[in-house]
Amino acid sequence: MLLVLPQVLKAQKITAPIVLINEQLPVIPKEFYVANVVDDRDDQRAVAWLLPVSAAGAIPASPYTTDLKGGTLAALKQFVNFALPPNRSLRPVVIHIRKLRIEESVLPGGSVEGKLKISLSFYLQKEDQQIHLIDYTGSAGYNRPAGQMIDVEPVLRHALQYGLTYFNTWINREADTNIKLAKGARIIFTDYTEQPEGDTIYYSAKRPLRWDDFRAKPMGGKYEAEVFPSIGYTEEVEVVKGIVNVKLAVKAYVPKSACWVKPDSRNDYSLNHEQRHFDIVKIIAERFKQKLRAEKLTVDNYDGPINVQYLESFHEMNVMQDQYDDETRHGTNTFTQQQWNEKIDKELASFK
Fold first, then answer.
1. Looking at residue 10, what is its pLDDT?
2. How far apart are CA 21 and CA 82, in angstroms?
3. Which terminus of the chain faces fewer neighbouring Cβ atoms within 10 Å, N or C?
4. For residue 162, what pLDDT is reported?
5. Total H helices, total E strands in the chain
6. Could you give the 3-state DSSP secondary structure of residue 103?
7. How many CA atoms lie within 13 A of 140 on its CB side?
8. What does the alpha-carbon distance between residue 157 and residue 155 come to, in Å, rounded to a whole number?
C-alpha cells in the first residue's frame, strides 16, 4: 500500500521517540483476544531509520534511528490492548512481530522515499504450546521533500491496524470450519456398506451368509468349513460450527474369496456355526462403538483413543472367536453351540 499523508508533513527533524496513538479499532473481536505480543525481529534496535532534513542538492547525512516511546515491545503491547480490548472468554492468540521497520532513502532528484515493511505471525495459545494460524505481511510507502520531515507515527499505526483487522477478518471466516480453531470433537457412527456387493460382505441382519459365498478352495484337515471375518473402519473429518465431526463408518466384514467349505458339509447346522463367527465380529464392532462413546475426545487428540480402542477391540475379537470355537469344539458340541447361539442373539438384540 502507498500512503500519501501530506497532512502530517512537518518542518522539524523528528528525533524524539515515536509516540503511538492508542485508539480502539472499529471492530469488536468475537473469536479471539490477544493474550501476548512477542518481539521476534532480527534487529530490535529501532523501528525507524530516517534521513535528516537537508537542503536541495545537498549530500544527505547518514540516517539516524528512532524507536517507539517506552520501547517497541511495551509500546506495541499497549497499542494492541487499546486497539482490541481483551475478552478472556475467547480464544487466546499470541502475536509475533517478525518485522516492523521504516527506512528512508534519497530518490533521483533529491526527494526522500520512505518504505515500511511489517510482518506479523498469529498463534493460538493452547496450554503450553502455540499453534500457528496465519501470517500477515504488508508494506507502505511515502515520498517527502528533502527539506521537510514527515511524522511516521500514522504510517506505523495504520500498518498495525491493517494487520489486526486482517487477522480479525480471517478468524471470523475460519472459526466454524478450521480444525485449528475447533472447540470440541465428537464421533458420528455409521455402518459401512457397499453397493453393489463385490467380494466383500459387510454385515447386515438382512444379509446372512449363504453357501455360495464360500468361494475359496477347500482346505484339508478335520474342519468342515471356515470363514475369516474381521472389523475395520473408515474415517472422515469435518469441522462444523467449530466442532470436529469424526465420521466413523465401522466395518464388520468377511471376504468371500477367503471362505471355504467341503462339498459334503453344506448343511444348515454348519452354516449357522459359520454365521455365528460373523455375528461375533458384529458384536465386537458394536462394543467398539460403545467404548468410543464413553471417551472424552479432545480436538488435539481424537485419533489416539480411536486407535487404542480399535486395537483392543481387534484383540478382543480374536479372543472371543477362539473361545467360541474351543467351547463348541468347532460346532461339534451341539449343546454348547445352542448356548452360544442364544448368547449371541441376546447381545445382538441389545444393540437395536
1. 43
2. 10
3. C
4. 97
5. 5, 14
6. strand
7. 22
8. 6
The CA-atom distances, in angstroms, between 300 and each of 122, 123, 177, 180, 297 are 19, 15, 15, 9, 9
Place of cell 474415517: 235
CB atoms closer than 10 angstroms to residue 270: 17
Q: What count of other Cβ atoms lies within 10 Å of the Cβ of residue 332?
A: 11
Question: Is the CB of residue 209 less than 8 Å from the CB of residue 263?
Answer: no
DSSP-derived 3-state class of residue 307: helix
**The pLDDT of residue 102 is above 50:** yes
pTM of the model: 0.81
Pairwise CA distance, residues 8 & 151, whole Å: 6
Tell me how far apart the alpha carbons of residues 281 and 260 are, in angstroms, rounded to a whole number. Answer: 18
Band the pLDDT of 108: cuts 50, 70, 90: confident
Q: What whole-number distance in Å separates Cα of residue 188 and Cα of residue 30?
A: 28
In 68-147, the DSSP E strands lie at 91-106, 112-126, 129-144
Domain 6-179: give its CATH architecture: 3-Layer(aba) Sandwich (3.40)
Residues of the chain with pLDDT > 70, as a percent, come to 94
User: C-alpha dihedral over 265, 269, 274, 279, to 10 degrees?
Assistant: 170
Q: What pLDDT digit, counting tens, does each position of 268-327 carry?
A: 999 999 999 999 999 999 999 999 999 999 998 999 999 999 999 999 999 999 999 999
List helix spans (H) across the chain: 72-83, 153-174, 268-293, 303-328, 334-350
Strand partners, 235: 248
Q: Which residues make Cβ contacts (< 8 Å) with residue 104, sequence separation at least 6?
A: 49, 50, 51, 63, 112, 113, 114, 115
CA distance 71 to 100: 13
- Above pLDDT 90, what percent of the chain? 85
Mean of the pLDDT values across residues 39-59?
Answer: 86
